[in-house]
């Protein structure tokens, strides 16, 4: 199996090393793991691409490349340059430092990389490690992802639920709970949740030179979402697996809208 890995935390991020180990286990001794990741951190860029300017790409080692672009750029660089047309069998994006559950999903470059792979017709899985007080006490805060990542990827692959003929094919969002590896309770299929009464915001600051700057900051991350949804099951100690697709249509109101516009 040929696997492409990328992330949004950057080529030197510890989570990418965890993902490389997961990918190597899945690919097997006869497989290949290719890395194309951002040269610098690209957290929060979502599914953006470098549409208006070129990006530098550099080979750092055997099957290891860095680009001055987003995770979606990295997938495009791999498919149309690095791999020379030999498409991967699977794209893995992550392991993100911090959860990509609930509304975080919409901002995530980790998700953006997996989404681009799906749009290109490649099976893709995004993986993220929820952080919290328990992971802060661990020598390896990625312990849950490191210990359970390969098994989760295999189980998703084994379901066969990929819909390769769909225009907007499925990809998967995996979040590991903020606990030690031995404390993980299991895996749950979960819908994307929503953290109520919290959101991203802008925090103004004045620099020493008197100029005004804004820091974008997130809200509290340990507020549970609705029961059974991603962040809720993560905070209960379970790995969440959420099937996603890039179709943003609100299908549940389409018929009512058509009737209202008639």
UniProtKB/TrEMBL annotation:
Alphabetically ordered keywords of this record: Cytoplasm, Hydrolase, Metal-binding, Nucleotide-binding
Compartment(s): Cytoplasm
Annotated cofactor note: Binds 1 divalent metal cation per subunit.
Segments forming domain Survival protein SurE-like phosphatase/nucleotidase: 3-196
Record-level Gene Ontology MF annotations: 3'-nucleotidase activity; 5'-nucleotidase activity; exopolyphosphatase activity; metal ion binding; nucleotide binding
Binding positions (a divalent metal cation): 8-9, 43, 96
Annotated coiled-coil segments of the chain: none
Cofactor(s) listed: a divalent metal cation
Cross-referenced Pfam families: SurE (PF01975)
HAMAP family: SurE (MF_00060)
General function of this protein: Nucleotidase that shows phosphatase activity on nucleoside 5'-monophosphates.
Protein name: 5'-nucleotidase SurE
Organism field: Gemmobacter lutimaris
Lineage: Bacteria, Pseudomonadati, Pseudomonadota, Alphaproteobacteria, Rhodobacterales
